[in-house]
Structure prediction request, 285 residues.
Amino acid sequence: MTRIIYINGEWLPESEAKVSVFDRGFLMADGIYEVTCVLDGKLVDYAGHAARLQRSARELGMVLPLDEDGLLAVHREIVARNGMDQGMIYLQLTRGVADRDFAYPPAGTPPTLVLFTQAKNVLENRAAEEGIAVALLPDLRWGRRDIKTIQLLYPCMAKMEAKERGADDAWLVEDGHVTESSAATSHIVTADDVLVTRDLSHALLPGITRASVLELAAEHGIRVEERPFTPAEAVAAREAFITSATNFVVPVVRIDGAVIGGGKPGALTRDLRRYYIETRRAAAI
Ligand code: PDD
Prediction:
């Protein structure tokens, strides 16, 4: 089935949805994005994703061409037009079309806003059942990872390097501490059952799933420390997991050569995945 794409106020079949070669997203990676999960045809954790999009735009001096209600309406309409039950909505906003120049185009240049859907079975996920392996790699990304920009070459390189090493993904390390995964937040559980996740800063993306998981941990009396952790702590952890919009909570059972939790998803990780799906599914809009 051909998808229906949203592009600058129009709804077009994917074969007709086109962006200019002069788009600043194409030429300069001058753009931001969001990924929102769809479950039962509804938007999961939508408020967080909408707020982070606004923040990314603000940080880069970009203006969203839709107001809050308009943005929600477009998200809902793309689900309806594509008859989507499960998967993700990808949204990309760039600084628009202009001659190639390092200086931004004049104020008032219309931005480019694109949304498309991508189907994914988010509930039945082998990685969630069995856990994934990660490789530790240096974090060579830029210094404002708190902004969700479309410049993703290094995360792609890290993912490929991880795969070459026989792992599923990369955990990135900077100044002796784990920052995050190539496209997810990294967490560990210590031997005395403390959930450790890095505190927010310019070093990592403020994950929306991370925020929900921390809320759920508090509700269930799980002890949490928000602080950087080292690769040595990670390999010695009782449990490890990642969080992201379409993965929810996925266990990590191997970090480089080290087997975590006997190679099986940990109990706390499994609980958090269940709590996340139950509560965020019920609250989806
Ligand atoms: N990735 N850190 C990075 C670098 C990410 O790219 C992502 C999300 C996250 C988790 O954020 P959230 O819980 O809000 O999805 C953390 C998305 C899903 C992607 O690029 O496909």
